[in-house]
């Protein structure tokens, strides 16, 4: 016989001790695994929540920053482009208008000046020829008149003189002739 069978009391003691150890190890492992899983779950949840929040915050911040940067860049680019385009258009329009106005003014002035010069030139030569013709005509007329008058006067004078001389000559001739005739015959 063994000692357990020889001593039944020791068997009960052994069985009680086995139950005690059983419960001890049971609760020990139970609490060990309980706390282990609890802390594991807690830390896992904590870290998961923490990383999730961190990544969410980081993603949100990154997205917001990216959106803001993109929006700002786009707005700035659009504004700059619009301003540049507007400025270029305004500049081009202004200078186009300025050159057009200048060209128009210059053309108008040139045309006016040319017209005025032409008119003045025409007027001047017209009156010049007019006066020239007038004076020429006047002198010609005067000269002609004077010549005619002189000629007439001269002719008249010679005619008169000639007539007078002729008359006088014949008068005396006839007178002497008759006198001689009557006297001698």
UniProtKB/TrEMBL annotation:
<feature type="transmembrane region" description="Helical">
    <location>
        <begin position="21"/>
        <end position="39"/>
    </location>
</feature>
<keyword id="KW-0812">Transmembrane</keyword>
<keyword id="KW-0472">Membrane</keyword>
<keyword id="KW-1133">Transmembrane helix</keyword>
<feature type="transmembrane region" description="Helical">
    <location>
        <begin position="127"/>
        <end position="145"/>
    </location>
</feature>
<feature type="transmembrane region" description="Helical">
    <location>
        <begin position="157"/>
        <end position="175"/>
    </location>
</feature>
<protein>
    <submittedName>
        <fullName>Uncharacterized protein</fullName>
    </submittedName>
</protein>
<feature type="transmembrane region" description="Helical">
    <location>
        <begin position="59"/>
        <end position="77"/>
    </location>
</feature>
<feature type="transmembrane region" description="Helical">
    <location>
        <begin position="89"/>
        <end position="107"/>
    </location>
</feature>
């Amino acid at each position: 016989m063994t000692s357990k069978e020889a001593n039944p009391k020791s068997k009960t003691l052994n069985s009680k001790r086995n139950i005690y150890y059983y419960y001890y190890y049971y609760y020990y492992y139970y609490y060990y695994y309980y706390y282990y899983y609890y802390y594991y779950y807690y830390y896992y949840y904590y870290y998961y929540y923490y990383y999730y929040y961190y990544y969410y915050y980081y993603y949100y911040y990154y997205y917001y920053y990216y959106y803001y940067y993109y929006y700002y860049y786009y707005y700035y680019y659009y504004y700059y482009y619009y301003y540049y385009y507007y400025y270029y258009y305004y500049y081009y329009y202004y200078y186009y208008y300025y050159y057009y106005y200048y060209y128009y003014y210059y053309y108008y002035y040139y045309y006016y000046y040319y017209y005025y010069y032409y008119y003045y030139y025409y007027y001047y030569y017209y009156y010049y020829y007019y006066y020239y013709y007038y004076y020429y005509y006047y002198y010609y007329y005067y000269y002609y008149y004077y010549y005619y008058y002189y000629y007439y006067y001269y002719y008249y004078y010679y005619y008169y003189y000639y007539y007078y001389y002729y008359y006088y000559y014949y008068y005396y001739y006839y007178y002497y002739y008759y006198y001689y005739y009557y006297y001698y015959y």
